[in-house]
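Hi support team,

I've been running sequence recovery on a batch of backbones for a student project. Most finish fine, but this one hangs at about 90% for roughly twenty minutes before it completes. I'm not sure whether the input is malformed or the queue is just slow. I've pasted the structure tokens below so you can try to reproduce it. Let me know if you need the job ID as well.

Thanks,
M.K.
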């Protein structure tokens, strides 16, 4: 029986070959819905906000003030209102009381955003 979160490898390990495919268990309905919503939210964000999300996913625990400084260094204007606020309102990141911003705690959302960032290189 396949367990949730367990990876199964297909391939001949006895012959010393690397596995050819990794099969992950299918998503639950809730994970599927979260993934689709995350994809739609990410796609609806402005390009500059996607760069902000990339910075957050590359450096989890980034302070909002540091993120703002990094985006201003990249040449963006009105960073708080046009980039940071839409990111925080999107549900794709998690803001802690300390002001640190982390990738979403939901695995389905995190995996979807990471996949989209690989498919759509921004920086």
């Amino acid at each position: 029986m396949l367990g949730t979160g367990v990876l199964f490898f297909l391939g001949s390990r006895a012959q010393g070959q690397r596995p050819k495919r990794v099969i992950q268990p299918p998503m639950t309905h809730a994970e599927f819905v979260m993934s689709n919503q995350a994809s739609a939210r990410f796609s609806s964000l402005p390009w500059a906000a996607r760069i902000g999300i990339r910075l957050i996913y590359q450096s989890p625990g980034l302070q909002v003030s540091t993120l703002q400084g990094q985006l201003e260094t990249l040449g963006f204007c009105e960073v708080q209102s046009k980039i940071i606020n839409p990111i925080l309102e999107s549900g794709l990141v998690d803001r802690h009381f300390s002001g640190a911003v982390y990738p979403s705690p939901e695995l389905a959302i995190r995996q979807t955003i990471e996949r989209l960032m690989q498919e759509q290189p921004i920086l």
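--
Follow-up from support: It reproduced on our side and the slowdown came from queue contention, not your input. Residues 29 and 35 are 10 Å apart (CA to CA). No action needed from you.
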